[in-house]
Design brief:
- By secondary structure, the chain is mainly α.
- 73% of the residues lie in helices and 0% in strands.
- The chain folds into 2 domains: 2-117, lambda repressor-like DNA-binding domains (434 Repressor (Amino-terminal Domain), Orthogonal Bundle), CATH 1.10.260.40; 118-220.
- The chain has 9 helices and no strands.
- α3 (26-33) packs across α4.
């Protein structure tokens, strides 16, 4: 009894047991589940975990309890669960085996699986993802271009400031020239006045500035 319970403790063994109960090969079982035979073999051997959509498909196709498939709890195949197929759905609702919220989540997962398994939808999804990647790349390129533009504007602003300073200096040149000429004129006037004073001082004196003999006699 313990060995049987241990066997049923693995999800892979429960999936293999379901296939054995239905007396079908791995290839046939995998085809019904919409997966490859190696993928089914990996699930049965415990290499990969069974996905929720696949477990939900087993429940719908063969009537095995979803909770039992996933956890081993509950009953393997409740008598009140009708056997359904995806192509021939029953008009009657299944009895509530799981909560409405979980069922809604599983329905969504199952729908997504069907969409991704469809070649047309899969191609469209890949194209949309590619377009999304391109849009991201385009946005990055625009951001990089905008960054370079801002840097260029900042550099240009610095150049404009330097040009403005040079223009101010150029504008001050005439005024500076006038001031320089005015200083030169004042300097010439000072030199002229200095020469005049010097000549006036040297007239009654000798070249060395001493008083002459004639001047001394007159003084006596």
């Amino acid at each position: 009894m313990t060995s049987i319970m241990n066997k049923y403790a693995t999800t892979g063994y429960r999936v293999a047991q379901i296939r054995a109960n239905e007396n079908i090969t791995q290839a046939e079982f995998a085809k019904k589940l919409g997966i490859s035979r190696p993928a089914l073999s990996a699930i049965e051997n415990g290499v990969t975990k069974i996905s929720i959509p696949i477990a939900y498909t087993i429940e719908h196709l063969f009537g095995y309890d979803f909770v039992w498939i996933m956890t081993g709890d509950g009953v393997m195949k409740p008598e009140n669960v009708r056997k359904l197929t995806l192509k021939e759905p029953s008009g009657e609702e299944l009895p509530p085996i799981i909560s409405p919220w979980d069922k809604e989540l599983l329905d969504a997962c199952f729908t997504l699986k069907k969409i991704f398994d469809d070649k047309v939808h899969k191609k469209a999804i890949i194209e949309n993802l590619h377009a999304f990647d391109l849009s991201i790349d385009d946005r990055k390129a625009k951001e990089e271009l905008n960054k370079k533009l801002q840097e260029s504007l900042q550099e240009n602003e610095g150049v404009q400031n330097r040009i403005s300073n040079l223009e101010k200096l150029c504008a001050d040149i005439p005024d500076m020239k006038n001031k320089f000429e005015s200083l030169q004129s004042e300097n010439r006037a000072l030199r002229t006045e200095n020469n005049r004073l010097k000549s006036t001082y040297e007239a009654p004196h000798g070249d060395d500035g001493s008083v002459t003999a004639v001047t001394e006699k007159k003084a006596i």
